[in-house]
């Protein structure tokens, strides 16, 4: 693990508990790698969640887009690179690349982060010491202007409800973003998951969910692509939309 200018690199070995029945890492595992390197790099740069807590501030992931060429297998070693690619005063962007041991790019991602005032639990402008930082690398791993995801209405025919456990919470005391991804995918048929692989994930995180709440995950076909789905996650009982996601898939060879 090292820091070079605004680049940060870490290596991970894919563990047995991070893979699916096909022996490949899950999308949740990739998202956790991205979250881990983002947190560690932010700490090295002086604006981690722990450091921001001294100013009564914290980071919250607002947008995520992941493009996957190939999922690593159990026991593979992968190298994840991340860098901040800019901000607009309210919104900070961060990029990610995932390479295998041979240096081949397996996946890439981009994310948008919002600063939250912990006292008000509301978004606030980035503090001056972050806005004044110069991040020379401005290129994007994935081009995305983070427009609001707008799923269709009235067509969510598959659904499952999840009860928030204490182990689902993160350092901010709310449901960790990776669980929303997990719950969205869980609405799909096991036979489909066994015969397809995800190629793209987009998530728009919209609201917080806390311990003991219930989240209803719903899924509808995405007619704009050959194999794709819209996912909507609703907090019960108030019905607030806590996340909207979009996934795209390809059949596995021989599937």
Explain this structure.
This protein is an alpha+beta fold. The chain has 2 domains: 146 residues, Hotdog Thioesterase (Thiol Ester Dehydrase, Chain A), CATH 3.10.129; 108 residues, Hotdog Thioesterase (Thiol Ester Dehydrase, Chain A, Roll). It contains 5 helices and 12 strands. Strands 1, 2, 3, 4, 5, 6, 7, 8, 9, 10, 11 and 12 form a 12-stranded antiparallel sheet that branches. A hairpin with a 3-residue loop joins β4 and β5. α1 runs antiparallel to α4. The longest helix has 19 residues. The chain is globular.
Q: How is this fold's topology laid out?
A:
Layout: E1 2-4, E2 7-13, H1 27-45, H2 49-53, E3 57-68, E4 77-87, E5 91-99, E6 105-117, E7 122-124, H3 128-131, E8 158-163, H4 177-186, H5 190-195, E9 196-205, E10 214-221, E11 228-236, E12 240-251
Antiparallel strand pairs: 1-2, 2-4, 3-6, 3-9, 4-5, 5-6, 6-7, 8-10, 9-12, 10-11, 11-12
Helix pairs in contact: 1-4
